[in-house]
Amino acid sequence: MKVDIILCGVGGQGILSIATIIGEAAMNENLYIKQAEVHGMSQRGGDVQSNLRISSEPIASDLIPHGAADVIISMEPMEALRYLPYLSADGWVITSTAPFVNIPNYPDINDIKAALAKLPHVVAIDIEQLAKDNGVPRSANVILLGAAQKALGIDYDKLETAIRRVFGRKGDAIVDANIRALAIGRDAQ
Amino acid sequence: MKKLFLGDEAIAQGAIDAGLSGVYAYPGTPSTEITEYIQANALAKERGLHSRWCTNEKTAMEAALGMSFMGKRAMVCMKHVGLNVCADPFVNSAMTGVGGGVVVVVADDPSMHSSQDEQDSRFYGKFAMLPVFEPSNQQEAYDMMADAFDYSERQQLPVLMRVTTRMAHSRAVVVVKDEARAENDKNYDAAAANWVLLPANARRRNDKVTAQQVQLEADAVSSTYNKLILPASGSGCPLGIIASGIAYNYVMETLAKRSFKQEVSILKVSQYPLPKTLVRQMLDACDKVLVVEEGQPFVEEQVRGVFESRNILGRLTGELPRTGELTPDCVAAALNEQLASDNEQDSEKLNAPFVDASSLVAPRPPQLCQGCGHRDVYTALNEVLKEYENPRVFGDIGCYTLGFLPPYKAIHSCVDMGASITMAKGAADAGQWPALAIIGDSTFTHSGMTGLLDAVNENADITVIISDNLTTAMTGGQDSAGTNKFETICRGLGVADEHLHVVVPLPKNMPEITRIIREEINYHGVSVIIPQRECIQTFKRHAKEKKVANK
Predict the structure, then answer these.
(1) Is B288's pLDDT higher than 60?
(2) Nearest C-alpha of chain A: how many angstroms from B134?
(3) Searching chain A, which residue's CA lies closest to the CA of residue B246?
(4) pLDDT confidence of B89, banded at 50, 70, 90?
(5) What pLDDT, on the 0 to 100 scale, is given for residue A189?
């Protein structure tokens, strides 16, 4: 198996936590992993992305070529569009629909939604609202991960186990909230 | 044991497992996580390894030399421009040589994700006549640390380990040793005749190190990190590819995916000096050679030489972009151009986006956080400077460099660590008024203090703002060397008490802050204003930690 994933959003939205959970699950399956991140100045309210590659065979490049990503997981709708040149023709986009507006020239959100709707394989959900409605306000990113589970081709319980390990030292309440969030995401897709 | 490691973390664990006694570093993207990993590592704590942040890269390099002098293994970590700051001890460390092994890890940042230039540290290695290691993956980065320390001790020279952003900040599974090597014992073997660089000693050492270059190159030829794959026929190969460090991965990615008809020869370079014997073997077997390397054309220039008689391709001839980070796409394009393929899918069209939404994507530049004290400082500064005709504000390196962008548009320069104060002084010397400097707390102790002394000694007509957020914020909130000492430092350097002010940058204090800035601009001499309020990011983190602790 081989999955090339682009995780994206705005600095501080928690895309690296999603990457950590997927990476943990993949490592436990003895898969090869490469995950390139962006740190430093670009994090401050700017666009951030991470290239995550998982494969049963050794992986050469840390970066995903254009037109090769199987999945784009985006915490923000405009950011999902930013990485479309990397998406393969039969790739999936799993995105939040809640715009993060911190620039004066943010495009019309309806145009963004219309562009997303044109994609052959897209899951677009308002994860922020779902997170609030279900009492897991800090786990919107894990809801998105739940919604991406099928496209990722990683077993649901493997992700659940990974969440237990990644969040274990933060206490049961946080583990439970994230496991709930994962299920909410799965059911929302 | 398997670990999912950033390249930086693999380097850190590799160093600990190699019997490290101390890491000396100043934070800088993309190198920061090396030292942070060691600071948090259980064995490092148990062994009491030195891992506290240094004031700058020069103090770091020198302290590492001191540890090496006593026979112990030391590592120095920095971003590429940090190597400029410690160039003096770095270059001279080849003359002194080492006792305990010294590995200098430098993380270059091609494409300047978080930097002000694209310099390639391999030139520094050659310049200082030191061996350079350049891993191409995280496992190699881990393995190389043990070899680099051994090699440093065997050659009695520091080893420069060069990584780039995609190596430092990419994760992969790394197999690590179950047990760490013991630290070296302290010894008194260091010979003053090597370490006292009086001309007579330095000349002898210079001859020795120069003569040693032959051995270093021979070692690079036989290094397991360098490998040459020649075509089975041994000659007549249409294309040879020399790929170094991370660039090797992009080449392998392309070769694995495309079905090229012709055979290619590959030379992977991960240890320098450039193994010329291997390069010659490749040139003899191949019609053309493409050099693929991350950063500047360091290998390519050496292979081309001045004659340019061979068909050497790369960044200098346009097959690869002249500047910027390599990508799997630009490497694939270069290979496609040189090699014919059977597979129609290999055409470039495959890479075109199938839905074009580029008109709906606006740039989203980084910005100062909501609630950041620098914001209040710039608001106050802009309000006062409206009253003057041609004010000039000299900026510096840190989050507050973002004050150049809208809505503040408040600074006119940002060159290198500490340059705000010295440039403001130079501008004042040229007759500029008002001339202001804005510098962060960590940058001030890194390289601003000496410049302030220059200004004080001439009572230059400048106003210095040390925007103190109690941390090294841009790299993620590391300890800042001068916290709680800024007033004392400024006073000690000779800043007069009546022109030294501490304020709290909050909207409610605007009248006080603007009054002080105005008064100090109108005072024709050195004044220092220190707006002091904790970085909003570390403040939130500390509040969270407190909450957890109280539970």
Answers:
(1) yes
(2) 16
(3) A61
(4) very high
(5) 77
- What is the 3-class SS of B123-176, one letter each residue? HHHHHCCCCEECCCCHHHHHHHHHHHHHHHHHHCCCEEEEEEHHHHCEEEEEEC
B409 touches chain A (CB under 8 A): no
Facing A44 at nearest CB: one of B2, B172, B402: B402
Cβ distance A145 to A21 under 8 Å? yes
Closest CB to A63 among B166, B355, B402: B166
Query: pLDDT tens digit string along A77-107?
Result: 999 999 999 999 999 999 999 999 999 999 9
Separation CA B504–CA B512 (nearest Å): 10
Q: What is the mean pLDDT of residues B482-501?
A: 98
Confidence of residue B356 (pLDDT cuts 50, 70, 90): confident
Q: With a cut of 50, which residues of chain A have pLDDT below it?
A: none
Say if the Cβ atoms of A39 and B32 lie within 8 Å: yes
Q: Does A105 touch chain B (CB under 8 A)?
A: yes
Which DSSP letter does residue B403 get?
G
Domains belonging to chain B, first-starting first, are 2-220 (3.40.50.970), 227-348 (3.40.50.920), 373-538 (3.40.50.970)
B7/chain A closest Cα distance in angstroms:
10
Residue A43 forms contact with B (CB below 8 Å): yes
Q: How high does pLDDT run on average in chain B?
A: 95
* B541 contacts on A by Cβ (under 8 Å): none
Query: Burial, B221: exposed, middle or buried (Cβ in 10 Å; 0-12, 13-18, 19+)?
Result: middle
Residues in chain B with CB shorter than 8 Å from the CB of A84 are 353, 355-357
Q: Mind listing the domains of chain A with CATH numbers?
A: 2-125+145-163 (3.40.920.10)
Pick B328's closest partner by Cβ from A63, A118, A119.
A63
What's the gap in Å between the CA of B138 and the closest CA on chain A? 9
Q: Which helix (H) or strand (E) holds B107?
A: strand B102-108
How many Cβ atoms are within 10 Å of B309's Cβ, its own excluded?
8
Alpha-carbon distance B188 to A187, whole Å? 68
The pLDDT tens digits of the residues spanning B150-205 come to 999 999 999 999 999 999 999 999 999 999 999 999 999 999 999 999 999 999 99
Is B193 in the A-facing interface, judged by CB distances under 8 Å? no
What ipTM does this complex have?
0.93
pLDDT in tens, B95-115: 999 999 999 999 999 999 889
Q: DSSP character for B280?
A: H
Q: Cβ distance A120 to B399 under 8 Å?
A: no
The answer, for B42 touching chain A at a CB cutoff of 8 Å, is: no
Which element (helix H / strand E) includes B227?
strand B227-229
Interface of A with B in 11-40 (CB under 8 A): 11, 23-24, 27, 32-40
Is residue A18 within 8 A of residue A94, CB to CB? The reply is no
The secondary element (H helix, E strand) that includes residue B530 is strand B527-531
Give pTM, 2 decimals.
0.95
Mutate: best of B34, B292, B354, partner A, most A CBs <10 A: B354
